[in-house]
Amino acid sequence: MKKILLIVFLAVLLISDANSQKTKKKRIRHEKKKEIPPTVEVETVESQQSQLEQQAHARDVLEAKLKAIEASESEAVPADENIPDPCENKRCGPGRECVPGLDGKARCACMKACPTEADFRRRVCSNYNETWESDCELYRSRCLCLEEQEECKNHLNKHLHIEYYGECRQMPACTEEEMSDFPRRMRDWLFNVMRELADRKELSTHYLQMEREAERSTNDSQRSVTAAIWKWCDLDGHPHDKQVSRHELFPIRAPLMALEHCIAPFLDSCDADNDHRITLSEWGTCLEVPMHELDNKCDDVRDGVDEELEAEEAL
Fold first, then answer.
1. SS3 content of the chain, % helix, strand, coil (to 5)
2. In the chain, how many domains are there?
3. Segments forming the whole domain that contains residue 283
4. Could you give the CA distance from residue 315 to residue 311 in angstroms, rounded to a whole number?
5. pTM of the model
């Protein structure tokens, strides 16, 4: 508002200045006709000259003020550091990113773009046997199709998931001999992973106690049962329904397929009724672990883990 008033005032002065110049010329011509004495003419001219100088000075002052106002308006307004970032504690799933809404609330949207990956080791193979540059690109494509956005190139991509890490390739067939020995190797591998996590102090207190008890036991089957229970409870996410979906099997399927070609057919064979879910009974049968030992320990393990999580949340 101040800027507008100053501009108007400056325009009035300029108009007044122009009118004064016209009046001066008319007056001089008129005075010449009347042959005004030289002394009077000099005084009149000096008076008009003084007035013009005052107007010019006022104009310069106004122009300086206008420039000062424009400079102050062009300066960036500092952000209010007290306003919290709505995305600070917002977590979004793969292929999505947090976007602040106009209402100040955070929401998850499909990523606009994924980081460029030059390393071929970041490539992944999808369940459609297609190689993607990165897991980000795969999940972003799935998100776009789930949201039914124009960028979705194939509507089947709403069912995309990572089959294994690395470029797609022809996997060798798993022989009968390899498959028959796989349950033992799977049990040994699971317990070795559990032991490594325990040594790195990355197991919860309840699982750590289970692992240490199995280490001290002279019964070899206890290691197998402990490893099977640990991995089962780890895979059985919310809700804890004692069955693991194909999606929940991802943490052990995708990382291993490039190294262990029998993992996919083995896990598929565990789904005896082919309902895309592996029950605790099917898991025990597949790993050749006595069902009664699994069933007796599964609830105790779940209760112990849930109690530990509740205690952490209370703190």
1. 60, 10, 30
2. 3
3. 176-314
4. 6
5. 0.56
